[in-house]
UniProtKB/TrEMBL annotation:
SUPFAM superfamilies: FAD/NAD(P)-binding domain (SSF51905). InterPro entries: FAD-bind_Monooxygenase_sf (IPR051209), FAD/NAD-bd_sf (IPR036188). Keywords: Monooxygenase, Oxidoreductase. It comes from the Bacteria. It holds the Pfam family Pyr_redox_3. It comes from Actinomycetospora atypica. One of its GO terms (molecular function) is monooxygenase activity. It is an enzyme of class 1 (oxidoreductase). Transmembrane segments: none annotated. Its EC number is 1.14.13.-. This is Flavin-containing monooxygenase. The lineage of its organism: Bacteria, Bacillati, Actinomycetota, Actinomycetes, Pseudonocardiales.
Amino acid sequence: MSRRVVIIGAGFGGIGAAIELRAHGYTDVTILDAASGIGGTWLANTYPGAACDVPSHLYSYSYAQRRSWSRLCSPQPEILDYLRQVAREHSVDHLVRPDTRVSAVRWDDEAHVWHVETDAGTYTADAVVMATGQLAQPSIPSIPGIDDFAGHAFHSAGWDHAHDLTGRRVAVIGTGASAVQFVPEIAPVVGKLSVFQRTGNWFLPRKNMRYPKPAQALLKVPGVQRLRRWGLKRLYLESLTASIRHPRTVGPVLRLKSQIFMRHQLRDPEVRRKVWPDYTFGCKRVLFSSYWLPALQRDNVEVVTDSIERIEPDGVRTVDGTLHRVDTIIWGTGFKATSFMFPMEVHGRDGASLRDVWADGPHAHLGMTVPGFPNLFVMYGPNTNTSGGSIIVYLESQARYVRTALQEADRRGAAAAEVRPEVEAASDAEVQSKFSGTAWLACDSWYRDATGRIITNWPGYMHEYEKATEAIDPSEYVWLRHP
Ligand code: NAP
């Protein structure tokens, strides 16, 4: 088929979309990525201990299952290898144009095509798939004095492997999912580690040991792998979502498990007092680690809960006046999740800017389509992040939805699909209403914008999203004619 599709992003979303489209006859696909190759977040995040925190049998494409994962949650190199292999096996690896940064995408009202402007020239496309993700842009807070620091500083998503941490005095700022993985790795190596925590987390146990040989053999028995994936998806992970959706009934069950585990691990009363979370279970991402709390209780590790006042040449000054002298700062401060594809310029029909359309917060029908932006599909867009599921399940659903949109356009001989404004508004209102009464609304988190609206997460279960996105509903769209 002759439709030209440009996919922006060569991570799990973009590669999955390309595979889906190619498998259904859309051969004219180009994948652009600013990075040096395939991988997305798994190319950028190479920090010590980096691994997925969703079991690999689910954190993988349904059509490219592996029985050879080394652990429940695979380490980053294994995931990156997997993604590269799958791209090769499905012959989409050669579609990737690495080191190509997109600056703007503009809809051409006359020709009914998109112009995708990059630092390597302009591509013309009938459809654009924005697979840039929510966790691609590292966030470093603007703390006063940050540029005065005389030591070395880097973000967890840009780990400086050339900087030997042995014996150093290190500050880690932030205690989210990334820090929880790398702190236990570096704590035994550094001289002194100061962990700056703003908010404590809820933890559940995970040792993530290598699968023993019998378990690996069992997974090779026909049917076991499929059953395992089904169980992980429908029982294990959806139960975490249930605990967040129902903080008064289901939530306390998992919270109790977390409390018992944390109480058992937190032998030091001072550290226990400092790290114990003071918000509803599930409001922020629940973290899985059996190594974090013990690491915080090492002799060479200090948990600092006083707010940071400023960064000075010799270290981090907290509001109590203490200067925490360090020679290295590692920012574990997460990502600009709500920036989505920006600062890229996205201009739709009549030159409308997506930035303006989203001035009061991003929203899209099923997280993917926006009125005024024909044949522009966002993957991992607004309200499609998951606290309790596998993002790969969402990305596969989105790839399928995009494919059905193009197929429907072909069937109708249409140039493009544009979601009806009233459909998008109604689905946004429905998504927002589903947050009511859930744990997500019980604290501040990176899921929310300045107004408190949740703009990153899906409020339901994985299977609900899969069902909602099974195929495009033609009545929800205006079908633009070819000029
Ligand atoms: P994060 O969860 O957003 O954590 C950022 C941390 O930095 C939080 O502890 C935050 O404190 C702190 N922080 C932010 N600004 C600060 C400031 N000005 N002063 C002091 N502390 C500050 O980031 P992340 O750990 O990189 O994880 C982001 C997301 O990536 C995760 O939620 C997850 O979805 C994904 N992830 C997944 C994996 C995995 O699969 N294994 C691993 C890593 C990341 P507050 O809590 O107070 O805001």
